[in-house]
Amino acid sequence: MKTVTRIALSLAIGIVLAITSAWSQDDMTIVDNAAFDNPQRTPSVFVHDAHNEAAGIDDCAECHHVYEDGKRLEDESSEDQSCSECHDLKGSGGQPSLIKAFHTSCKGCHQAQKKGPIMCGECHIK
Amino acid sequence: MAEPSKKEATKVVDEGIDVGISRLTEEKIQSVINSVIDEETGARLKTYVETCVHCGLCSEACHYYLSHDNDPHYSPVGKVKQTIWEMVKKKGRVTPEFIRQAAIIAQTECNLCKRCAQYCPFGIDIAYLMSVVRRIIHRLGVTPLYIQDTAHSHSVTMNQMWVKGDEWPDTLQWQEEEAQAEIPDLRIPLEKEGADIMYSVIAPEPKFQAQLIYQAAVIMHVAGVDWTMPASMGWDNSDMAMFTGDNELMGRLKRTHFETAARLKVKKIVMGECGHAFRSVYDMGNRWLGWAMPPFTIVHAIEFYHDIIKEGRIKIARKYKPPITLHDPCNVVRGGGLHEKARFVAHAICENVIEMHPNREHNYCCGAGGGVINTGPPFKMTRITGNRVKAEQLFGAKTKGAEVLVAPCHNCHSGLHDIVHHYEIGLDIKFFGDIIYEVMEKPA
Amino acid sequence: MHTFYNFVSGPLAWVAFILFFGGSIYRIASMLKLVAEKERFIFSYMSWRYSLRSILHWIIPFATVNWRRQPVLTVVTFTFHLCLLATPIFLLSHVVLWDEAFNVSWWTLPDAVADVMTIIVILGAVYFLVRRVTQPEVKFVTSASDFVILTIVAAPFITGFLAYHQWLSYPLMMCLHVLAGDILLAAMPFTRLSHMLFSPFTRAYMGSEFGKVRHARDW
């Protein structure tokens, strides 16, 4: 009985975790702006999965890149990190500030693809 | 834009303007305007016209505007709009009637006192713009008759009042004799080469205010000044040509004046209590002749009195008793910064000096300057009704106790006389020289 | 809309800035050339001391007689002009665009402050409009061009305000905002908005004449 209970419990926990984590993925609707002390704009709207599906992005590193010595590392991605771990508020040398990293990442791609929002208020919706 | 039409269409009759207008054609008007604008103006006109933001902040600077219950036709920028803006905008294609109105505005509704230049945030020189209009009016031959007559006098006699060659030394000798009855060894030294000072006056002095020359001679004598007066043309420092836009004639006048001083080898030119002459000698005429500043040290009477009192060369026996108020003439105060020296003189010779308000550089114009009084009887009421605010200002000084109004400028003197008389203010008007002569220590 | 946005914020903005800077240099240079050709004497009367003395008095609120005579106008015009210049230069979203485009950035205003400054500019423009149509001395000298330049100045602020708050159609407002900004930049040297360029010179000249020749105050 104990074993059964243990298995059942761990299964249940596992399922709940799996579901909630899946929810959290589905539920990413904005870009976390907690790193900003005094954010001037509303956090940018960004529905992660829907966006990637619509944009046909499979490779996480498309956005979650890793740079070393100013070079982008192939086959490495950083989805386990938060952007602000590398991109600080000020930016330094070749490393863009957090704001600029977000903007160039989103808007840069939108401009290149000629798809997606490019004006301030299209992402920072009031 | 609907425009307020407070300004009644008074049909002034002036033969100079009216006959001049009758000779005009639109082609002539256009060619003259464009010739003046293209050949005689430059960055100032262009920049002023293009920089003005039509804010109207110059309005309250103008005594005509204030006196006409803030009628915008009389504001400085309003006058610019009714004259040079239209000429520039229409490239000279304006009617003779427009020119008539422009002549009246520029010659009789603006004293070129430059008070508005102190009120424009951009420092636009509106008086200069009015001078450009006057230049156009001159070249169109539409200048008001009376002032044109003085300009003719200048041209023929080199003085403003048709004083003939022999009348001038005659008058000086007459005043010398008169003064010798009081001070036997007094001289009015004529043609004294190498004197320190050439004393010059405006032609109205010998013409009908010869006592002023008498007084000046007494002051010079007592102060022990090494001075002289020229016996020939060049003695008159006045200049109505400057106000009619006859720049060439202005140049002739000032050249004669400066050359006379050069011929007499004097160190300085001291001039009587006249404002416009100071403007001409110190600011305008010299520039026309190519002198950034005058070729001689120019000492206006105010400064001269200041210096001789300060240096103790004349002593005040007893200060003048009646309370005085001091009018700051535009040409020597806004144009020469003599306001504090004038106050020094006033306090040195008078017991009680009562300030009128506004004063110093911000004083209201007398309404006569800029040649307006010289446009004569047809426009006498223009300048009197156009300067009610001056009457109010003087009345303010009078209520504070002033009995005498000191106006160290001929035009101011005459203009204020009309205002004091018309508005029944009841102030005596005097020159500094009148009072100094009265209160100074003289040899017994 | 994005194509239009990219056009007005790209090539057209280049044109606007070139017209603004090029036009400003051209206007000032041609003014100085005209002085050199026809009124050379002006140079000999210019004085740094008296120019600055005059400019200083007139750019300080209430430092001149006329500013003191017009207290309301003085407060409005100073705050209006200050906000008019400072808001677009120090607006966060503008600096972000400069940073993205040219890798340059500078201090920025908090958005809430910029919002208030924008409202000040708009209200200032309304004040000037009302003053222009109600004050007889201003109305008398008003021409159509005065309303045009006021509109040119107010438009980027009105559209910017609406776009910031995302009222009405955001994308349209944003595009109109950028377009209005381009028009303002391009118009500045070539309309009477050029008082921005010329007033320091006219003020300096009058200050020099008054200080050096006339020994009197011009304020």
Could you describe the 3D structure shown?
The complex is a heterotrimer of chains A (126), B (444) and C (219). Chain A has 126 residues and is mainly α. Chain A has two domains: 1-30; 31-54 and 82-123, Cytochrome C3 (Alpha-Beta Complex). Helices cover 45% and strands 3% of the residues of chain A. In chain A, strand 1 (67-68) and strand 2 form a beta hairpin. Chain B folds into three domains: 15-143, Fumarate Reductase Iron-sulfur Protein, Chain B, domain 2 (Orthogonal Bundle); 158-310, 3-Layer(aba) Sandwich (Rossmann fold), CATH 3.40.50; 324-373 and 380-439, no CATH class. Helix content of chain B is 50%, strand content 6%. Chain C has one domain: Transmembrane di-heme cytochromes, Chain C (Fumarate Reductase Cytochrome B subunit). Helix content of chain C is 80%, strand content 0%. In chain C, helix 8 packs antiparallel against helix 10 (144-165). Chain C is globular, with a radius of gyration of 20 Å. The N and C termini of chain C lie far apart (51 Å). The model of chain C has no long low-confidence stretch (mean pLDDT 97). Chain A binds chain C through residues 38, 40-41, 99-100, 103-104, 107, 111, 114, 118-122, 125-126, and chain C through 2, 5-6, 92-93, 96, 99-100, 110-111, 163-166, 170-171, 174.
Order of helices and strands of chain A: HHEEHHH
**CATH fold title of the largest domain in chain A:** Cytochrome C3
What composes the largest sheet of chain A?
A: 2 strands, antiparallel
CATH topology of chain C: Fumarate Reductase Cytochrome B subunit
Q: How would you describe the shape of chain C? A: globular
Order of helices and strands of chain C: HHHHHHHHHHHH
Strands of chain C, count: 0
* Average of the residue pLDDT scores of chain C: 97
Q: Percent of residues of chain A in helical segments?
A: 40-55%
